[in-house]
Amino acid sequence: MEKKKVIFDCDIGCDDAVALAALLMSDNVDVIAVTTVFGNRPVDNTTDNALRLLSFMYRDIPVYRGCNTPMVRTLTRGRDLNTRMERIRMVIDGKEITIHEATLPLPESTRREEDRHACSYLIETLMNSEEKLDVCATGPLTNIAMALRLEPRIAEKIGTLYIMGGGLYIGNRTPVAEANFYDDPEAAEIVLTSGIEIVLAPIEGCHSGATYSQQDIDEIDSVGTPLAHFLAEELRNFIKRCQILFAPDENSCCIYDYAAVIPLIAPDAVRDIRREICRVDFYGGMADGQLVVDRRGFDSDHSSVQIIYELDSEKVHENLLSMLKRNR
Ligand code: RIB
Ligand code: CA
Counting CB atoms within 10 angstroms of each CB, which of 18, 26, 64, 294 has the fewest? Predict the structure, then answer.
């Protein structure tokens, strides 16, 4: 089967790193570029992390730096004041602890990012491509939304857009909003209503298939390669940071962004996926950034968004392990 050409848009952090490694190991996918965006960390860090991981995996794939601020949300003063925010940063004895580290513990890359902005790259590449290209977006959707605003016709040039974002019944950054959508709600609304064919992995769909215990992580490590050990250590340290920041008894973690690329690299691991009408609240109140799914039943067949409700955990875990073993 011919490999699908994919652009990976991310805010590398720990779970984005697993998703990128999985895409690079997959037989189904040819990652043609990585675009970076703010989110887990400022875009300086997410760009540097993308370069570090690509060099660590000996891949000479171009990286394009993207947006470092949301489209408009920071223009509204006090927009963050009225929510019960998840604590994603603390300073303990003068040391900053954040849920995602600024720099992946990998050697600095000798490469630099390309000169073009990620949005320019997305528009020029999609508009000049003879075939539709797939895109995976695992951070705030700012780059995709800005590119759509500049050149709406890219919507017809994207085959499928795979997104990690939103929560069906729960949030993480706030009681109702997931981090990627919360960081740029307007971008999420623009993208989800753009008409692009979207496969969306919300918090619950990710939890169903990509939750990893310490034992699961040890199994990854047992593959014995430098990549397997790096990923395992990343996940162990992610759990440790979660224990410090908000859940002392936490002993597992969800690899959200890896779950989001599963429909592309291991579609047989998708158990329950439904086409539904999706919107995103961007009015700055308690529900700011919330994914709103209209389940009243009418019009859902006209939606361009498919939501992953459940993944097959065994197949998801097996997929990563078998790829790591194949890439020994
Ligand atoms: O809510 C989880 C999402 O927010 C993931 O993409 C994670 O990397 C963070 O960006
Ligand atoms: Ca991410």
Answer: 294
